[in-house]
Specification:
This protein is α/β, with parallel strands linked by helices and 189 residues long. The chain is built from nine helices and five strands.
Length: 189
């Protein structure tokens, strides 16, 4: 996949976030917002595809395709980081927390858990506990010693202010990266 034209600044910001989190083995969260068609998902996938070649692993989720909404989030993350745990029928929420937030000393050699949730706002549109799940994931990514790095992508520019006010109150709000509409100069390239 080629680079998105007109999204160089956003690409640099995403790469800097990944370097300061996954690259430095530190947890963190990034919330990317913008109108549909502004290149959010494509830009992130392109950056992550280049990192994958360096051995980085990521769990990709789409809020629109999770059939049971928020209930599926932990299961899908667990499936992406430890499929054996799914086969062992471990509780997905507990298992994700144990592997990504409070890793046992025996797991300290394991890498970071990078989770990308596209269409994150779709999780809030269902009566499936989406707000609680997102609050928990963002707060886990803000904990010292956590290995969770979370990237959320949504169309709502103010999702974290409208739906996740508790994150701001707890001081664990994500870094924000708005994808503004394309300017005429970018459209001519």
């Amino acid at each position: 996949a080629g680079s998105m034209i007109g999204r160089e600044e956003e690409r640099v910001a995403i790469e800097a976030f990944l370097k300061s989190t996954v690259g430095a083995k530190k947890s963190g969260a990034l919330y990317i917002s913008g109108k549909p068609g502004t290149g959010k998902s494509s830009t992130v996938r392109d950056v992550l595809a280049k990192r994958k070649k360096q051995g980085w692993k990521a769990v990709y989720l789409n809020g629109m395709s999770l059939s049971d909404g928020a209930k599926d989030v932990y299961f899908e993350i667990l499936k992406g980081i430890d499929s054996k745990a799914v086969l062992d029928k471990e509780d997905p929420e507990t298992a994700v927390m144990e592997r990504s937030v409070h890793p046992a000393k025996s797991q300290c050699h394991a890498g970071m858990t990078l989770v990308l949730i596209d269409e994150m706002d779709a999780l809030l549109q269902r009566a499936s506990g989406g707000q609680g799940v997102l609050e928990k994931l963002f707060s886990w990514a803000a904990r010292p010693g956590s290995r969770l790095v979370l990237i959320g992508i949504a169309n709502a520019l103010d999702l974290t202010h409208r739906f996740l006010p508790v994150l701001h109150a707890r001081g664990c709000a994500p870094q924000l990266l708005p994808f503004l509409p394309y300017q005429d100069s970018a459209m001519r390239q």
